[in-house]
Predict the 3D structure of the following.
Amino acid sequence: MQKIMEMMTKNARQSGIKVIIIKALILLLCCFAGIFVKRAINPLANVITDALHIPGGISTSASLMFLVIGAGVTNCRFGAIVMATMQGSCALMTGMTGSMGILLPIAYLLPGFAIDAVMLLPLQGQWGKRLKAFLANIAASLTAALFADIAVFHLPAIVLLVYLCVAAFSGAICGCLAASVINGGENE
């Protein structure tokens, strides 16, 4: 009996380590996917935002979508904050500072806080996960847009309203995509 208990404990420890490694890899991949996607769609997003005479908001929502996916798939508390810190640091080190400059890590960190705050909502089941992903992406996009306006842009009220609406709309679309990825393997 003693040997069986020792074997079960050893197997449980090994599987726990495997789960932690898998979750860390998922968070890391989502982190880099967000940076890559932002860089890839930025020219197309700029065509839309230039036509609206606003500073951005679309490619940021797509980048933040991967933070939502990582937090939702792994169910790690504060996983979005960790990924946002890594994303901001990597973007700063690679020179993707944009208009934020040295404030870039903070510009990633604040939406990470917003994502983790929404992910802590006590919504259960598939629809609860979908709603949390949808709301988390909107909250993160709005947080990023507000921080960018306060720190850099200082937009007039009407332009700020359009900027926030575009950020919320693109956040909602990316939130729907994140929700479908998070629940992709589950049946209804």
Q: What stands out?
A: Residues 30 and 66 are 5 Å apart (CA to CA). The helical segments are 2-52, 58-74, 79-93, 104-119, 125-153, 157-182. The chain is about 80% helix and 0% strand.
